[in-house]
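Notes taken during the Thursday session

The instructor put the following on the board and asked us to keep it in front of us for the whole hour. The protein is Ubiquinone biosynthesis hydroxylase, UbiH/UbiF/VisC/COQ6 family. We were told not to look anything up and to reason only from what is written here. First, the residues (415 in total):
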Amino acid sequence: MDGVSAQENHILIAGGGMVGLSLALLLHRQLPGEPIITVVEGRALPASDAAPADYHPSFDARSTALSYSTATLYRELGLWPSLLPGLAPINEIHVSRRGRFGSSLLSGKEQGWDALGWVVENPCLGRTLLAAVQDCPRIVMRCPDQVTDAAPAGPGMRVSLRDEELDADLLVIADGAESGLRSKLGFLTQRKSYGQSALIANLAFEKDHGGCAYERFTATGPLALLPLPPSDQAAHRMALVWTLEPAEAAALEIADESSFSRALIEAFGYRLGRVERVGDRHSYPLALTEALEQVRRACVVLGNAAHALHPVAGQGFNLALRDAAALSQTLARAVPEGRAVGDTNLLAGYSRDRQRDQAQTIAASDGLPNLFMVSDPLLSLGRDLALSGMDMFPLLRREFVQQAAGMAALEARHG
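Then, after some discussion, the predicted structure tokens were revealed:
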């Protein structure tokens, strides 16, 4: 659908990235009646045959780790068959600390799962979401366009676009960590800079990864390598997310391939053999950004606009998807009862229900890098023993893996 009158506009999502489109699909599937879901996105929709570089920045060359709970959600939406060609399963996760004896191997088989998670290249996920949205008659894409302002109007919100105004029963702000709309509406945030940068790249190695992801803690921070599906150019591909001091990240971003590969092998080792190919490298500053207020009457902050996390455990997108699933389920329960989707108490209840999962996930992503960077000898010994203990005690491993997979939240959603 290309247009809709203000009177028909029930839910408006500001931001058409992966979180915004996923929420739109969830709402379209779960909400009873005939609500219109409008997605406003600043970039034009790519043509169906567009190259990945033509997609929204959220769909760039970066990869996203999908937890088991996220995979379950996409299966429920019927998207999994379309995603399969661009997926690489994470069968195992090898966690270690450079120069120390402690390590742990987390396995999907131990949980009775086909995989611990999956890695998908963002262009593949983006194409799949866009194709699904375009097949939904009650999802209206307004792009390129932008929400320039919004204000309470009756029980809902009056939303200003570039050339017109729309009335929405509920406004969802999902336009990223640097959300201008969130700031314009006065949602307070707190930002903690880690004083570090993440260096990302796609790499090809000599040896097959075998579906194993690696999380290696170094003196500067974690180094993660995630399995990617093979391409025409390389069979043994992996996605790198390397936490470094800003100056070192900047230097390695522009270093020649030989120098970069030597530095990587020095930090990671030869488990995968030589680095055979280095893709485009990019770096960005690391920070934890949280919205101190996520709901108001007829307004919800979602995705990176609500919480942008350290990438150490790959949990930011998965947490956002659990939020989106919980919000859509909250609204789906309320509508048959005659409650307005923008009801303050309803949205406050959603926020309370999400507090524990959000707090635990944010604390883990915030604390884990610091834990492995402290140089105290006794603490170092404790960390090494803890990593070894993960291999020695299956129940400890199981609890850790289920938390990371978002299974507690998934069980609560279906409970």
